[in-house]
Design goal:
By secondary structure, the chain is α/β, with parallel strands linked by helices. The chain has eleven helices and 25 strands. The longest helix is centred in the N-terminal third of the chain and has 17 residues. The radius of gyration is 26 Å and the shape is elongated.
Length: about 450
Amino acid sequence: MQDYLVPYDYFELDQLILHLSRNHTVKKLTLKGLYELDYIWYKLPVSVFSLHHLTDLYLGEFDLDHPPTFEGFGSLGSLYLNDVKISTKSLLHLLSNCPSLKCFSLDIGELDGECTINELLKCLPVIKRLTISIRAFQWLVLDPVPQELPTSLIQLKYLRLEGMCIDEDCRLAFHVLIKCSLNLERFELVVYGREYILLLRHGPIYELTLQLSIDEDECLELDQIVSHLSINNTVKKPTLCGWYNDYGYEVPISIFSFHHLRDLVMSGVDLYHPPIFNGFDSLESLVLRDVAIPTKTLLHLLLNCPSLKNLSLDIWESGDKCTISELLKYLPTIEHLTTSPHISEWVVLDSVSQELPTSLIHLRYLCFKDMTLVERCRLAFFLVFIKCSPNLEKVKLEVNNIIIFHVLFVLIITCQNTLTQTLLGIFRFGGGGVGFFGVFSWFSQ
């Protein structure tokens, strides 16, 4: 509703919420305040609690307390509390009066006391998606008997823990929470501590996102987690995000034992494969973003992904070069292809570039990012791809130079008969044209 509040806005906000509460038509409400100096939060208008038909509620940077007569939000399905000040008693009372709550995100700015894991989760009987920040997690304490948790977790499908630092104070609570999520399908962990990380759970995890810290000294040692998950071999959609520097994080060898992968995303890492790597037979989508990988390794990886349909390449420090034909012959089923400007640094034109392997007959979508004329080969790459893709349906270009935009437009219309001349443009201009950026795409008939 409003991103930032200044003191003279407070009264108007109160009046507006009060007016909306009379009609009972608001279903999705987003309110973001701004706490002042000395951590003084703006108190949330009481009238918010009279919006009984809410289905989604996002509150950020508020002093949150409910009136004694508050009877809850019977229809509320999603609740997001971001950097709020609230008493433990008020929070538990709020949650216990949201019987339909399925999605809950908690990032607490200030609390007046601790709460046990059981006390929190027994207020969430039908919770399916749960996000907890490090500040909220440190507020939770273990119950006297931490081996079991309320059966409410049987509904939990998605769990995200943000900014975690698994130290002596909350490590056991983390283990208990993971172990007792029997039906968990997706688990996202953003961790800044690198020690004592164990996944003590028995149920399968199908999607996993692991994010390294920007601080190299505090990076999570992913090897142990990836190795543990590879034992059960249930992960189908892993995402590994590193922080690339001169010494990028090297992907654990155990990642190559995930034979049932369907989607794989790797960002900011060094990628090498073991000599015994047999490939990902089921892999359909591969995203390599800011990845350092030798050309030989990349080609071997692509060769052993026979089902690959979607590929996004943004790699560097590839070393050896290869021709376009050499690259594309490893993509017999490719349908969606996205490339970065770095492609011209390691892929070279064939001596006879008029024809390409028939693998491009399946190509439906092509995206070239950051097209420029600095490297002359990039324009040639684009034209070769266009000319030899008879079934291409959509092309997307991102250009940062107004001259190349006009050149491309003329060449496309001249040399490509399979594409229509329908051109959709979105442009942003900076001062003096320096900040020009264009994205345009067209579609087949």
